[in-house]
């Protein structure tokens, strides 16, 4: 009887780095909405940069949310092996890139 596949040690290291990376992004998004300008000033943004953040259209916050929390969820699900791996060979990746560029 074969046991489950043992996860290589380096994948745990990458997983922890991904958790920290995506965790900071998720916290930054949440604090930007909760504290607003005060959070931007803590992060040493200039008044022009803060004004640019306020000029974003509403749909941009949806993209920002999806990118931050989507990456965080994907990493968590992958580490728990609830999300399958997708392997592409170079030919498939190249064809997909060409189709995208051709649009």
Features:
mainly alpha; 0% strand; 5 helices; single chain; elongated; 103 residues
What is the number of domains?
1
Shape: elongated
The ordered H/E elements are: HHHHH
Output the structural class: mainly alpha
Number of strands: 0
Mind describing the biggest β-sheet?
none
Contiguous helical run count: 5
Distance from first to last alpha carbon: 50 Å
The percent of residues in helical segments reads over 70%
% residues in beta strands: under 5%
Unreliable parts: none
How would you state the average pLDDT, rounded? 77
The Cα radius of gyration reads 19 Å
Describe this structure in words.
This protein has one domain. Helices cover 74% and strands 0% of the residues. It is built from five helices and no strands. The radius of gyration is 19 Å and the shape is elongated.
Note the topology:
Blueprint: H1 9-35, H2 37-42, H3 47-54, H4 58-79, H5 90-102
Give a brief description.
The chain is mainly α and 103 residues long. Helix content is 74%, strand content 0%. It has one domain (10-83).
């Amino acid at each position: 009887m074969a046991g489950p596949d043992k996860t290589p040690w380096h994948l745990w290291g990458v997983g922890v780095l991904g958790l920290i990376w995506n965790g900071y992004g998720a916290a930054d998004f949440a604090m930007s909405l909760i504290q607003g300008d005060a959070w931007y000033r803590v992060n040493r943004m200039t008044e022009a940069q803060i004004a640019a953040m306020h000029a974003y259209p509403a749909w941009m916050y949806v993209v920002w949310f999806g990118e931050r929390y989507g990456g965080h969820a994907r990493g968590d699900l992958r580490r728990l092996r609830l999300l399958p791996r997708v392997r592409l060979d170079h030919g498939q990746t190249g064809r997909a890139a060409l189709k995208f560029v051709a649009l």
